[in-house]
Structures are given as C-alpha cells and as structure tokens.
C-alpha cells in the first residue's frame, strides 16, 4: 500500500507498506530536483533530529529534494528499534518509492539509519551514501568496531561526524586512503567532514568555539558541496 497526503507545512507525506508495518516518507521537494537525498533516522529518535531538519530546510532551494524516512517502529509509536535486519527489510521496501521520485538517489541517514544505508546501498543501486553520526562503535567500546559496514558500502560515502561523538570521534575512523580501507571498500570511497565540538546529535556546548548555528551550517554546506558531485 502506498498513500500520499498533503502536509500543512507545504511538504508531502507518503505512507508505504512494508513487511513490518507502514513506513512514512516526508518529502521536501526541490522545484527542479537534480538529486533525491533519502535519509533515515536513528534508533533513539526520529526525523525531528536537528541535522535532518537542517538538511530538509537548506537543500531543496539548491535543487536537492530531501526525503525523510520514518521506520515502521517509529510510525507505530514504539520506543525501541528492532534488529538491524528488520530495519534493512523496511528500507528495502521503501526504496522503490524513493528511487522512482528522481533522477539520482543518494541513500543516507543518521546513526542507525546510516548503518542501514551503508549495508544496502550497493544492493539497491544508491549512487552514494551520506552517513551522519555514523556509530563506529558503542560508547566506551572501541573494540566493537562497525568500520566494516562503512567501508563495505560499495559506493562513494560521506561521513559527517561530531568532534566529541562518543560513538566514534573523527580521529578513530580508519584512514580513508589507507590500505585497509581500499581493500574493503568494495569500489567505493569515503571522506569525512568533522563538526568541531559536536556530540552524537550534533549539539555543541554554549561555550564551544563553534556555535550551534555554525555547526549546522558546516553540515548543510558540506553535504551540499558533496551532493553536487552526483547531481
């Protein structure tokens, strides 16, 4: 089932049936779209995250349609995210609606949503992946690395990471130009954009050298420049 309803904020909301229940896409459409950026949310929140909202506001005027995807568990009002395989299954079910909306589709998301995009990008035919706050490891457990998911996306990937992210600071990520990255990248390449002083949700302290507004501008500006390469 796929249903489309107007949204009072001038956007469009689309409901898409998946094996795990209904998912929901909120579309922020560019007038003459050059690219569609499809973004999933994390395991601890929804599409109200500050980085997702900032991108949805900043990118459409530049010609990039933004589609914010809510997983079925969030649509159903549940508080706990399901297993990664279940998240991947729902993303696969939503993908035809995303792929059918524009000339080029970049997959992405924040945190758990970034992992989903990395795991499924090559299979679904995404042109690239945007990984916001990629959870490289659980907090305090660097030995439980998820670098293989990032390096195995198989497509060009941009990681946007807070300088104080407990799930992985920029310096902890593998060298994108190193031998290990090249050996496991599956044909893709990744680059990293740091947001100084930001945590996992891209919040910065009031005393930080980079204020909150500027931190969000680093995200939107960096993503816009990178996405233009695929438009």
Q: Which band does the percent of strand residues land in?
A: 15-25%
Structural class by secondary-structure content:
alpha/beta
Which spans of ≥5 residues are poorly predicted at pLDDT below 50?
A: 4-10
Estimate the helix proportion, in percent. 25-40%
Strand order of the largest sheet: 1-2-3-5-4-6-7-8-9
Number of helices: 7
Summed over residues and divided by their number, the pLDDT gives a mean of 92
Overview of the molecule:
With about 230 residues, the chain is α/β, with parallel strands linked by helices. About 30% of the residues lie in helices and about 25% in strands. The chain has seven helices and nine strands. It has helices at about 50-60, 70-75, 85-100, 110-125, 145-150, 180-185, 210-225, and strands at about 1-5, 10-20, 20-30, 35-40, 65-70, 105-110, 130, 155-160, 190-195. It has a nine-stranded mixed β-sheet, sandwiched between helices. The two termini are about 30 Å apart. The model is unreliable at about 5-10 (pLDDT under 50).
Kindly summarize this structure in a few lines.
With 231 residues, the protein is α/β, with parallel strands linked by helices.
Task: Name the descriptors.
globular, alpha/beta, 231 residues
